[in-house]
Amino acid sequence: MNAASLTASLLLPLALLLALLPPATRRIALVLAPLAPLPALWTASLASADAVLDLPWLLLGSRLGLDDTGRLFLLFTALTWLAAGLYARAYLARDARRTAFWAFFLATQAGNLGVCLALDLASFYTLYALMTFAAYGLVVHTRSAEAWRAGRIYLVMAVLGELTLVAGLMMTAHAAGGLMIADLQAASPPPVAVALVAAGLGVKVGLPLLHLWLPLAHPVAPVPASAVLSGVMLKAGLLGWLRLLPLGHAVYPEIGATLLLLGLIAMFYGVAVGLAQRDLKVVLAYSSVSQMGFMTLGVGAGLSAPGLWPVLLPAVGLYALHHALAKSALFLGAGVALKVGGRAWVLAGLALPALALAGAPLTGGWLAKAALKGGLAGLPAPWGGLLGILLPLAAVGTTLLMTRLLWLVHRLPAKEPVASLALPWLAWTLLGLVLPWGYAQRVTFPEWAGLAAATWPVLLGLLFAWLAWRGRLQVPVIPPGDLVVPLEHLLKILKRRQRDILPIEQRLRS
Amino acid sequence: MTVNEVLPLAVIASSLLPGLIIFALPERRIGLRSALNLLGAVSKLVFVGLLLAGVAAGEEYGFRHTVLPGVELVFKADALALLFVTLSTVLWLFTTVYAIGYLEGSPHRSRFFGFFSLCVTATVGLAMAGNLFTFFVFYELLTLSTFPLVVHRGTPQAMRGGMVYLAYTLAGGALLLTGIVWLHGLMGQVDFVHGGSVAALGPQATAQLKVVFLLLIAGVGVKAAIVPLHGWLPQAMVAPAPVSALLHAVAVVKAGAFGIVRIVYEVYGVEYAQSLGLLLPLAIAAAITIVWGSVRALFQDDLKKRLAYSTVSQVSYIALGVALFGPVGTIGGLAHLVHQGIMKITLFFAAGNYAETLGVHKVSELDGAGRRMPLTSAAFSIAAFGMIGVAPTAGYVSKWYLGEGALAAGMDWVVAVLWTSSLLNAAYFLPILYRLWFRPRPAAWPHEHIPARGWRETGWLLLAPPLITAAAVLITGLFAETSWSPLAWAKLIAAREYLQ
Amino acid sequence: MNGLLRSAVVIVGLSLAAAMVIALLQLPSAAVHLPALVAENLAQSGVEHPVTAVLLNFRGWDTLLEVAVLLLALLTLLTLGGGKAPAPAAAVDPLLQGLARRMLPLIVLTAGYLLWAGAHRPGGAFQAGAVLAAGAVFLQLAGLLPAWTAPRRWLRLGLVLGFLVFLAVAAALLGQGALLRYPPALAGGLILLIEAGLTLSLGLILAGLFLFLTGRDA
Amino acid sequence: MSTGLLYALAGVLLFVLGAAGAVLLAHLMRKVLAFNVMGSGAFLVLVGLAQREDVIDPVPQAMVLTGIVVAVAATALALGLARAFHARTGRTGLTEEARRD
Amino acid sequence: MTEAWPDPAAWLILLPLAWATLAFLAGPGRGGRLAIPALAAQCALALWLAVSLAESGARLHPVGGWGAPLGIDLLADGLSAVMLLLTQAVALALAVYAQAYFADAHHRHEATWFWPLTGFLIAAMNALFLSADLFNLYVTLELLGLAAVGLVAVGGGTAQIAAALRYLLVSLIASGAYLMGVALIYGTYGTAAIASLAPLIDPTPPLATWLAAGLMVVGLMAKTALFPFHFWLPPAHGGAPAPVSALLSALVVKASFYLVLRLALGPFAPLAEMAAWLAGGLGAAAILWGSWQALRTRHIKRLVAWSTVAQLGYLFLIFPLLAADGLAMQAGVMQAVAHGLAKAALFAAAGVLMRATGRDTLDGLAGVAGRVPLTLFAFGLAGVTIMGLPPSAGFLAKWLLIDAALASGQWGWVVVIIAGGLLAAGYIFRVLRRAFLVAPEDSRFHPVPRRLEWTAFALAVASVLLGLRGAELVALLG
């Protein structure tokens, strides 16, 4: 039964994908496509804990299965894909390239679900690659000029990331002496390997400097695709970290510190640049950069202080769950907002996940942040103290950013409501409020005394926002993708140079 | 003669005889010619199957014939030989089918298929060569039998390509010959044996052995297209697509790479080569080739030329694997021998399909071809991903083993080389895929020869081979750990090379 | 021809000459002494004159090939293609013609004598053939014998008869164990047979060397 | 010094003279004559040297006889060719031809 | 010598003499029908001789029953057997070729006395290979030379006559030098029999022996057309009708080489070392110069002829290496045999190509690959031998040669050998690549008798396949 459900989780999306290709089966496949994550959902919620499927003949020897982390990730991944799928059915009902969208959608989905199930390096990497490359099709779906540009940058960064990951995996596997995730438990690979793995996956996670693709790619994709890109695919990178980094049993002070630093930068940088955006989805994308910074902190801390890891792991997991739900809800909501305009119910629906993101009390964000803070507090000086000050400040920033979002939505002109879109979104939003609580027993439950501590950053943020509005503060505009722009300039110059060099070289050869 | 002596000869004869008969056939006997070709290919497959089963069971197959006193023609169908023989035989079958479709209606087909068969004969002979002398015999035979294929079109451009090809390969052959005779003078006949044999010469011969190694490797390095000996390969791409497939996947470059394997493992012995310090320079040369080939490929607009430079790069993976001291690297190199073959042949089949169906020869003309020819393009894409080393393709498996082998050999810098190369591979393949799938198709194709009929985007003889080989790219990657995969066979060979 | 080559040839020639002269002057006496051997075996050779013995018996093989050389020279001349029609005899000097007519029997007689004498004194087939040829040349010069063009069958037979006889004898004797190994009893007769055939053919050949040449593009 | 040796010495000189002539002279007729001189030199050496101790040796005599016949044949052939060449080209030497490769 | 069936060696000389004479008797243009069965019989005889030699070792045949030094010996050993076999086999194939070649109306006039001349030529070679007497060798040399000259002139054109004349003059001067050498040798030692001479010549002989050896070898080199005496060869071999060129290039030049080898291995062995370097140097120069010229000429047959000049150079490379061990000698003979077969094939193929295109230049060849593929294949196969590529006999020759050079530590020759091979590839592929070009619109092809094509092909195949049976050949050499 376990084997069957594991297999079905992985194969159903692929089977549907194949069914899409011949015209004969296309219609039925299109109907069924949104339901592709159901077996995975079944697996995540009902399969027994020791569900393992050994496939020694597959790839370099594969193992699929579920552990605690995997189960959690599989759960929210499958759910998010399901929601996005249902949403997409309506969203793309009249799209000319519908079939192509669904093909890429299902392929990406298979990869993403599989990543959660993979318990060996080869299949993890395989499915990860499938997800990454298939997502390109989602990014460029609209075929607009921005989409091509975003796709190009996405692909370049993704390839760099993949390759770096493979190099890191090779070294890790060499150090571990095996390809199973289980083999990695006791291994302490050389720092280079760890750094390569961290960086390779960091592209997906959106570490600062490696994030360049993110604010471009997430917004240009169709809304349901953005929801999964930002909601769960970033988490695949995170899951990779959790699986492949030697967390919990070896100390890597430099890498840990670097990750901590990068996490911090991400938190604030994401907010800062996000505030300077005009486009809803770009704002959300930057928010993702910022939020992933929180999780990066957790991982960085785990590398610096392995002793904290048993506390940190569930916290990071919870954070991932919370962010996946909230961010996908926001994206889906943004989609609705763009279709129906800044109506009140839209604003209200968006405000809930926005608050969760800001960590407002009683939201999932509140639970997650508290758990994370608890873990991070154990860090040695100066990190412990420093983070104690900075984390609330980051929450202030998040609040500001969310306010900015709502402000932008508010200014959208109202249009006809579309129920088929709104219903899955609203349902999803509500689910997002509830679900993190189900996971709360795994982490140190925040003390109720901490409620105040969670409240003031939100209020402070709102205050700043009001002040800015009152003062008619002009926000400077930063083009999406920030650093990409000067980089592209540089490339253009180089290309011109190359055109000068090439003929000379040809002459030399002839 | 016993069965164990006859079987290797039968493998050779199964393409030689049809080839000779085909030469004598009049041009218009298409049916008979095709039947002969396929009969040869299939019977060769059967013989190879028998050999495979036997070798896996520990049988020894060989044949000896004295040519000169102390010089023998030796055939030996051992595991390593069969790795290459199987590859060539299987791919030959597909290439033959493809060529029958590709050359439909073009002139001089008797000649073409005659040399085609000779070419494969030379390849299997080379693979089963049991000593350096025999190896050289077939090495040169291969050169000669491919030349008419390269210049088949008879255009001045083809001539230029052919002459460059000859100049390079014959010069390489000369170096190889010098090295072989030198070694022969030092120690008599040099049979291929596990673990090599030259170590017996003792320490006073090391200086000479180093020079001989250089000569031998430079000799086979021409065919293996190691930089700076690679210049012929991009020139030779003027040949028809089946020939390119042959050059790049089935026979020629493989012969060079295979020669490196034989020389390092079974003439010098990998341990001894390592102790002479010969492996590091080889690895460096291979690394340079890998990167340089990819860099050159980036700038080619001609599709086949781009693929050709890609071959330059990819074939050196094999040499690299050989130069990595340790069984894992060996496994990687040997597995790549097969993997590169099926991937590159798929690419060339697809390139040929674009040219033959749509008249498209340039990368820049490929816009939207994925819509017009989805199956071909899918095959192309799979193989291209394989070249980049994306899982779960065959290319991923070999790259993985190479990387692991490098780490095991303590040559961590190789990982950087692999990284760079993969990046470059992505840089020249992904734009092609992008054009195939995501760009709008043009108003008209440059020269549409074959109209689409339903899902049959082109002739079925042209379509089937790339689809099968593309499937093979996936299957060999997905099922790499099964006992019948090329990887498993490579492991068997590596075990024999190192444990003795 | 350029000067450099000329001087080089002269220098090489002079030094070669000098070296040879020196070499000859300091030559020791020979290690092998054939005249004694010849004398010893003369009795079995079938002839009495040592030179003829060497020519036709001891080194008869040389002679066989030499006849072939002559035949070959003639053949080659013939290959030079059909020339013009034979030139009419140029000088029709009646005195010369008369002389030639009278000399002819004498010439044939002399040839016969030389042939017969070869067995025991200087003479033999070559000399006899040469005399015959000289007669033919004489006739031609006197305008009594036209120059030859392509040889007719009978002429061809005459040209090769001697050689064929020689060959036949050699082949027949091969049955005895070795080429040209005359049984002592038959040696004299066989040699005479060969010489007779050769005289005729050599005469014709030598004459032909002249007559075919004259006939051509003269 | 015996007569035989004297003959031989003279033969040497004739041979060298003839050889040089055969190489250097341009006119075909002269070449042929020079060749004959050269051959005669060789014959003289063959006969003379063998008999330098004044013992008659019939073997070289027979050899020379053979040689002479061969030389006659060769001379005739050379003359025939030279005449044919002259008749076709009007030239008496090969040298211009030699320049042409 | 009292066997039931007498010595095949003697028959190998008598038989061609006989059929040559009979062919003459039969009249102009006749003799082909006689020659082919006779040559087939000669082949059998040569084979028989070789087999019996392999069993019993070298055999003497004392002509006239006298024995050396009084009489003349015929000596049949492995070396001569190999050369005899080569000669008969190539001659047989070329006879078959020639019969078809001259059947054509355009070429009939060339055939007038072709058959008797060829018969004498073959007889001369067989006699030369078997003779063991220096003076007798002189006679055979002359016989051979005159027959060859006659064949060069056989076409009767002005160029042919000029070539024949030049050939004749060189040949005569060369024989003169050889004869002078024989005179000196006879004067010094009192005998011309090789068997008697061999024990008499020691490493410090009188000056006369040196001079004799020098004169004889130089004369023979000139006859072999070794650089710089090669100038007569290209016009002579390039201008004659194809079967003649083939005979001359494949066989005749080998005869004088054979003699040099015999002398260097036999009586002059003590002296050989001194001159060996010179011979090797000239050989190297021949390889380079001949190949270079072949790369430049515009005519097919000239190209093949220049290739002969180059390939003959290899034969002389063996002399500096003779000391090493048997390798160099084997190499030389292997090269002679390989080149004999291959060159015959090349000329035969060139003849077909020229007849098919009606032109004699390389430029005229465009497109012949599609018209006479078999011939082109033959040309290519023979080219394989010429280039010294495996599995041909030429390759084995090169292999042995390099082996010998490396064994004796003489590096330079290896470079020359390799360079020569590459240059050969250069000129062979000059022909092949043009043949593969697309034929121009206005080109016209003439039909060619299939027999011509097949003969060329058979010769070429033989030259390649011989490489697989090198062991037998070497075993025969002993």
Fold and architecture overview:
The complex is a heteropentamer of chains A (510), B (500), C (218), D (101) and E (478). Helix content of chain B is 73%, strand content 3%. Chain B is mostly helical. In chain B, helix 14 runs antiparallel to helix 20. Helices cover 73% and strands 0% of the residues of chain C. In chain C, helix 3 crosses helix 4, helix 4 (60-79) runs parallel beside helix 8 (184-215) and helix 5 (94-117) packs antiparallel against helix 6. Chain C is built from eight helices and no strands. The mean pLDDT of chain C is 85. Chain C has one domain. Chain C has 218 residues and is mainly α. Chain E has two domains: 1-267, no CATH class; 274-478, no CATH class. Helix content of chain E is 74%, strand content 2%. In chain E, strands 1-2 form a two-stranded antiparallel sheet. Chain A binds chain B through residues 56-61, 122, 125-126, 129-130, 133, 140, 143, 148, 151, 155, 159-160, 162-164, 166-167, 170-171, 173-174, 192, 502, and chain B through 299, 385, 388-392, 396-397, 399-400, 403-404, 407-408, 412, 415-416, 418-419, 422-423, 426-427, 430, 438, 477-482.
Compact description:
The complex is a heteropentamer of chains A (510), B (500), C (218), D (101) and E (478). With 510 residues, chain A is mainly alpha-helical. Chain A folds into 2 domains: 2-478, no CATH class; 480-510.
Q: Roughly how much helix do the residues of chain B carry, as a percent range?
A: over 70%
Please trace the helix and strand order of chain A, writing H or E for each element: HHHEEHHHHHHHHHHHHHHHHH
Physical arrangement of strands within the biggest beta sheet of chain B: 1-2
Please state the CA-atom Rg of chain A, rounded to the nearest Å.
Answer: 22 Å
What does the average pLDDT of chain A come to?
88
User: How many beta-strand segments of chain B?
Assistant: 2
Main sheet overview of chain B: 2 strands, antiparallel
